[in-house]
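task queued by scheduler; priority normal; single chain, no ligands, no partner chains; default sampling; output format set to structure tokens
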Amino acid sequence: MGIFLDKDELARTQGAENTAFRTPVPTRVVSNGEFTPIPQTEEQKKVEARIGELADQYGARQGLDRRRFLETSCGMATAFLAMNQVFGRVFEVSEAEAAELEVAQARAEGLAGQFIFDVQSHFIRDDFNQEGLLGLGEFASQHWNPDMLKDMGLTLERYRFDNFLKEIYLDSETDLALLSGAPFDDPEWWLLTNDQIAKARDVVTAIAGSKRLFAHSVVTPGQDGWMDMVEHAIADLKPDSWKGYTIGDPLGPSRFPWRLDDEALVYPFYERIVEAGITTVCIHKGLLPANFEEAFPGTWEYAKVDDVPKAAKDWPEINFVMYHSALRPFLELPDAELAHFEQTGEIRWASDLARIPQEHGVSNVYAELGTAFANSAVANPRFCAAFVGTLVKEMGADHVLWGTDSVWYGSPQWQIEAMRRLEIPEDMQQKHGFRPLGPANGAIKNAIFGLNAARLYNLPLTVDRAAVDLERAAITADKIQQMRAEYQAEGGHRTNLAYGYIARTAA
């Protein structure tokens, strides 16, 4: 992904992987470089301290030090227990899960067959240089694909890719992932070209013996030769869907912002992809730096969703997926955003998206959770519940897609657990007319985790639970499933690292 932050903003951040206390769930807002991370809140400081206290208490019973305990399923439960103690009950978790390994393992085994399709994933950022990953390339070469290091070389980029494989497929329960990218006005800034994204999909397919990774091709309306790139993608790369940034360049302000409803510029693209049969278009919306009006003069408005209704009406054959659900960046502490919601019932910008299907009579507009979920879950879980509740209420659970923006936030397993455990508090349900999200593997969460994406990407999965179990088993009976089992049997565990940016702490 690209980096929105300018030099001054970057100077006020530090690498998330350098945090001394590696908690299973981040206790700070982590930025992927596309928005300004707010400093750790007082509540997050309390959560972090409470996690440490509980980890020492429960870890001692199991003969584990704090770090090793927090890498276990009990450690994950402990993090959500601490969050409930600070923020109030939002996550479904019991003390027994945190204290007793058998209880935590029983729950994990009961959910192990859940189908999870992560529709937004990325490689590690350019300046990540963690020496502990240097042996991973050899591990991947020996166990997965003997030719891949020979083909692409023992470079730092290769290590990043290997870590992506480890975090996504071994350290989490993700079954399928979609590899995404970002455009820039200057082609030299592209972190992954469309050809490289497609190549990564092919390498993972070779590793697994089945299709575990799907691929975007990024489109750049208005740039010279952009439709030629589309034609190349259709003919040679066979993308599974398309990715675009209506704000143009993530570094902004761009010379090439565009609107989804621009008939002269973009409609020829729609016509071509309908003809080619690649009809899912994923668009970055929302998620800007806190000073977006100053940093993106004349282009920040393109991050809103007022261009979605006409495009969706004019092109019913196309699925329009809004990444990050168009959530406006936090300009203040998330508590202020929650207070705004409680007063108005509005999630800024995201509510505009959520109302589109009903207000405009369209059924081809979707919300992807992405970083909006990741950071609201750790910054203010009640706000996160309101956010997800709004999307489900207005759009329907069948129009919300699971995406984690990983590996920016480390292994996506903590996000999977946050979504499994998230429940809308009863007072919020009654006041705002939300329905419960239900159990971890209930109808609503199963739809969000994978069944909705399966429909968009033409996978042979149905809504019948028994049938899903059989069909998922057929999809995942491959080398990666074997490697995951071996990795776990040999004691492999999450590092609890995150790789984005956090607000710099005082020296």
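post-processing summary
- The longest strand covers residues 213-218.
- Residues 125-159 have pLDDT under 50 and may be disordered.
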